[in-house]
Amino acid sequence: MISIKNVQKRFGDNIVLDDINLEIPQSNVFALIGPSGAGKSTLIRTINALEGIEEGEIIVDGSSIHHKQTDINKVRTEIGFVFQSFNLYPFLSALDNVTIAPINVKKMGKQEAQEKGKQLLESLGLGDKINSYPSQLSGGQQQRVAIARALAMDPKVMLFDEPTSALDPEMIKEVLDAIRGLAKSGMTMIVVTHEMGFAREMCDQIVFMADGKIVEVSPPDKFFTNPDSERAKSFLSKVLNH
Questions:
Q1: What is the domain partition of the chain in residue ranges?
Q2: Is there a smaller number of Cβ atoms within 10 Å at the N or the C end of the chain?
Q3: What CA–CA distance (Å, rounded) separates 41 from 121?
Q4: Residue-wise pLDDT tens digits, 60-118
């Protein structure tokens, strides 16, 4: 489903992604974890070309993302992306935030888009907030609107870039519950996260990154109980005992 081959990314002389190779099968959920500055967010942003790459190739469902002949705008309609900071339009209601892309990009009829948008918001526990504006919503509610907005495009893949990092602790659970629901539905997902309990519970594979490299890829039970690398052991000793 997603194939990342020999990817290298630099910012000036700084190598932020160093020969990244990763295969993500359809309907799998992968967590990207590791220390700050490891390259996790940069990697996830290269998957829909929000960041360019200097070397290598990224293929999503048969499309080479960074090939000059690829219509990246078309490909992006099939790759949902949920940011740390919601990025909702403040002057649009929750429902209008969800329906604007299907109407304007996919040319979906307004009534159909609104019906689908209402269903998505209701499925995420926001049925009573469809006419609310972002300023009237909590952070957790805004992030769930952002998830509904991404799902409204019927993506084949969902990418989450630290979706709970901007939330107060009491709001994290409602967003993680929404992502759990997607995982159970069979959506292919990559989640950059610091929520170790979520990663262990819901993900098929843990991808541990440090210093721009993938250090190891393991199933959650193995990674959290007996990681292969000393770097991962050091990381876990800090985050699990914090």
A1: 91-154
A2: C
A3: 27
A4: 999 999 998 999 888 999 999 998 888 899 999 999 999 999 999 999 999 999 999 99
